[in-house]
């Protein structure tokens, strides 16, 4: 059984990330729940994944549920779609959007595939945590994080 290791970055600040391992047979719903837990977010809002490419363009949608909006193609549903069925590339990328009002956006990148399960882990599981995530309901919105990242890059020059 393949074990997939994903690095999940906060789009606004790529120094804030979590590494997650999941079986290829597990669902996007399980990945969704693991990301929320890893970033200490609640599960009260709408969410969707997009299969992506190296340029982070949004492709096929894998949604928590079918929402009342126009779609180019009907979305796949998280609970019915296994992670492995959507891996089309050894460096597969996904975009994960949570809470459409706040538009929390995470970049999800496949960074390793292993055949060996770790008997000490329950899958899916967060195995690495880098930096403190922003508060879901704090005063610092995703737009603030974009500005913060730009300021940090300017200071580094």
Overall description:
The chain is an alpha+beta fold. The protein has one domain: Roll (Structural Genomics Hypothetical 15.5 Kd Protein In mrcA-pckA Intergenic Region, Chain A), CATH 3.10.290. The chain is 17% helix and 36% strand. The protein has two helices and eight strands. The protein has helices spanning 28-38, 142-156, and strands spanning 3-10, 13-23, 47-52, 58-63, 76-77, 93-98, 104-114, 125-130. Strands 5-4-3-6-7-1-2-8 form an eight-stranded mixed beta sheet. The termini are far apart. The model has no long low-confidence stretch (mean pLDDT 88).
Short summary of the structure?
The chain is an alpha+beta fold.
Largest sheet: 8 strands, mixed
- By oligomeric state, this entry counts as single chain
Would you tell me the overall average pLDDT?
88
Number of domains: 1
Estimated radius of gyration? 16 Å
- The H-and-E topology, N to C, reads as EEHEEEEEEH
Strand percent estimate: 35-45%
- Helical amount: 10-25%
Shape category:
globular
| Secondary structure: number of strands | 8
Distance between the termini: 45 Å
CATH superfamily: MM3350-like
Main-sheet strand order equals 5-4-3-6-7-1-2-8
Indicate the low-confidence ranges by residue numbers: none
Under the CATH scheme, the architecture is Roll
The number of helical segments is 2
- CATH fold assignment: Structural Genomics Hypothetical 15.5 Kd Protein In mrcA-pckA Intergenic Region, Chain A
CATH C-level? Alpha Beta
- Helix and strand content put the structural class at alpha+beta
């Amino acid at each position: 059984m393949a074990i997939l290791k994903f690095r999940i970055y906060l789009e606004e600040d790529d120094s804030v990330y979590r590494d997650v391992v999941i079986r290829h047979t597990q669902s996007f719903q399980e990945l969704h729940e693991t990301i929320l837990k890893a970033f200490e977010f609640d599960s009260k809002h709408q969410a969707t994944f997009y299969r992506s490419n190296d340029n982070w363009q949004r492709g096929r949608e894998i949604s928590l549920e079918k929402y009342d909006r126009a779609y180019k193609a009907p979305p796949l549903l998280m609970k019915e779609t296994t992670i492995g069925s959507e891996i089309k590339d050894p460096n597969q990328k996904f975009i994960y959007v949570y809470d459409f009002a706040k538009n929390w956006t995470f970049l999800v990148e496949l960074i390793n595939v292993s055949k060996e399960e770790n008997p000490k882990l329950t899958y899916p599981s967060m195995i690495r945590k880098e930096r403190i995530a922003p508060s879901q309901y704090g005063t610092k919105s995703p737009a603030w994080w974009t500005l913060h990242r730009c300021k940090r890059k300017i200071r580094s020059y």
